[in-house]
Design goal:
Elements: H1 32-39, E1 42-44, E2 50-52, H2 53-56, E3 61-66, H3 73-85, E4 95-101, H4 108-115, E5 120-123, H5 128-132, H6 153-166, E6 182-187, E7 190-196, H7 206-215
Parallel strand pairs: 3-4, 4-5
Antiparallel strand pairs: 1-2, 3-6, 6-7
Length: 235
Amino acid sequence: MASVTGVSTPLSTATTAEVNFDINVTDEVPSVKSQSEAALISVYRSDGTSQLLQDVTAGQRVLVIFIRHFLCGICQQFLRSLNTILPPSSLPQDTRVVVIGCGAPDMISMYQKETNCQYLILADPSRKLYDILGMTRTLSLGSHKPEYQTKGLTTTILGSLAYGIRSGTGSLKGGDIRQIGGEFLYEGGSVRWCHRMRNTRDHAPLETLRTVIHTGSADSVRGRMQDSTSRQGFN
């Protein structure tokens, strides 16, 4: 199996003026072409062993959550809330949740311990999946504080800095601080629903994810079921 070390933007470059706009992206599912390309991208476990995305999403319904870098305090709060709202015991029998970050694989163990995340965490240090599936890059905070953000912004930033210091050289391997993620529901190996972040704290609401997981639909909220075989989406 292949291994990778990963290189990232240093945490120190995160000092930037707060902005409150949203990036203009859609929640349409990726095109068949993009999904086929993404299926052949490798993701990595904490020990550096790799597997293709198509193997991660094969068979069952799989909700893939793309977080930001492994030092992001807001994403850490999101996963802690996910543990409470959507623990593995609450999932339908045929459904799994997988988390993918854009940092180095050797950051995963510490990150999993920090967040107490009960789901499999993988790494895409190349960020190829983020690009192919239509996710973008920004440092904008957006104008809305999400329900899962339980700490103030200053406390969150200081916590991220402290976490980076505790990780030692990991502060240089957390991943691209401008990369934002999203959530993609796979059924039978194809994306059936997705949500792309518009800013750095725009993960899909947890109630939305619970609805999508349990009903396969989120018609009343942002994000829609799509027939991926008939949409062109992102190329």
